[in-house]
């Protein structure tokens, strides 16, 4: 049995709000056909992560790759075009 293809990758994504580090070098890999959950307490950065992924926030560093294509960091319309909303 072959390993599922990678659908989404986050590479060392960081986002700050003033002096507050909302995300600090977050990396993850999501494989096609699998189900994942992102959990954590209030203020852990879950919403910030998704806002960076969808282009609503511009991350300070790092990047996302969706289905083999690097996503533009500040283009919500591009994320929506590939099915991320």
From TrEMBL:
Protein name: ABC transporter ATP-binding protein
Organism ancestry: Bacteria, Pseudomonadati, Pseudomonadota, Betaproteobacteria, Candidatus Accumulibacter
Gene Ontology cellular-component terms listed: plasma membrane
Gene3D superfamilies, alphabetized: P-loop containing nucleotide triphosphate hydrolases (3.40.50.300)
Keywords (A to Z) from UniProt: ATP-binding, Nucleotide-binding, Transport
InterPro entries: ABC_AA/LPS_Transport (IPR051120), ABC_transporter-like_ATP-bd (IPR003439), P-loop_NTPase (IPR027417)
GO molecular function: ATP binding; ATP hydrolysis activity
Organism: Candidatus Accumulibacter phosphatis
Residue stretches making up the ABC transporter domain: 23-81
């Amino acid at each position: 049995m072959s390993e599922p293809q990678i659908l989404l990758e986050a590479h060392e994504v960081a986002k700050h709000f003033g002096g507050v580090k909302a995300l600090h070098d977050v990396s993850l890999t999501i494989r096609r056909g699998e189900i994942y959950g992102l959990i954590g307490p209030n203020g852990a950065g879950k919403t910030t992560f998704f806002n960076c992924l969808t282009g609503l926030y511009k991350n300070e560093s790092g990047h996302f790759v969706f289905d083999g294509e690097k996503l533009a960091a500040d283009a919500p319309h591009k994320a929506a075009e590939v099915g991320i909303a």
